[in-house]
Amino acid sequence: MLIRVEIPIDAPGIDALLRRSFGGEGEARLVHDLREDGLITLGFVATDDEGQVIGYVAFSPVTVEGEELQWVGLAPLAVDEQYRGQGLARQLVYEGLDSLNEFGYAAAVTLGDPAFYSRLGFENAAQHGLHCRWPETEAAFLVHRLADDALNGVRGLVEYSEHFNRL
Description:
By secondary structure, the chain is an alpha+beta fold. It is built from 4 helices and 9 strands, in the order βααβββαβαββββ.
């Protein structure tokens, strides 16, 4: 198994993985549209020994109160069913966060399972005065500091690209 930055030839494999993992085309369409509009800040794939995509994570820009603060949103994260429970999702997220940190990004947010993401260093965003446009998701809206001062004085609405509103 290999984890690496996605390249253009991975697009069909990512698309197929997302359709299988999420049982529809919503997330696959999201990634396609983000990619087409140049809004994937970073994407990592995990491939098997034959080069097939078995895991994927994407990061795209978000704003806080309309300001660009070098923050990204993690979404989607997917691992092929037969490879789940082996730590692959954790590895994909860590690879992404490490690279984003090296590139000077300040923070990452996600909507996801708090039990899973808290083990990776994510915290409830509402505790830091941050929220997203979907109020019913407050418990699942999480933030991870990449820079020590990322949350200093930062409060308010975190907005993903408009593409996320189509999900």
